[in-house]
Amino acid sequence: MATIISGAPVPLFERLASGGTEPSAHLLDGAQLRQSVARELGRLLNTRSRLSAEAFLASEGTVLDYGLPDCSSRSLQSGPDRALIAALVRHAVTLFEPRLRNVNVQFSPPLNTALAQPVLLIDGELCLGQAPERVSFELAAGDETAQLRGADHG
């Protein structure tokens, strides 16, 4: 008789890092899946691709292209630069984080007025079980990891 397994598989990198050997250690529940995606977004956005912005946007993504092109010469105060960075992030997430679908990336003003830089918002759908779940992640300039923003959207 077939058994229905509820959960999402743990990515290989996380399995290797944790050293977990139990079969149950290879499945993530909803909260664990959201945290796993947040960690992967942090890794992705803090890794530099070898490609230029234009070449990256035209690429289909190989393991050699993982990450984002260098955007250090871009200004977050410039509308066209923010639009380019958002397009690069959306393309990177679409290529390298398949657990997150229908991705939308945009900048928003910082919620904390002490911060001078806009916050990057990444919205998408996570599939866990039968129905997709809408989630949002935010990354402030200089952050090392993406944070779940507020509550998940259901």
Automatic annotation (TrEMBL):
Could you tell me the superkingdom of the organism this chain comes from? Bacteria
Q: InterPro entries in the record, alphabetically?
A: IraD/Gp25-like, T6SS_TssE1-like, TssE1-like
Record-given protein name: IraD/Gp25-like domain-containing protein
Q: What is the lineage of its organism?
A: Bacteria, Pseudomonadati, Pseudomonadota, Betaproteobacteria, Burkholderiales
| Pfam families per UniProt | GPW_gp25
Q: Where is each IraD/Gp25-like domain found? A: 32-113
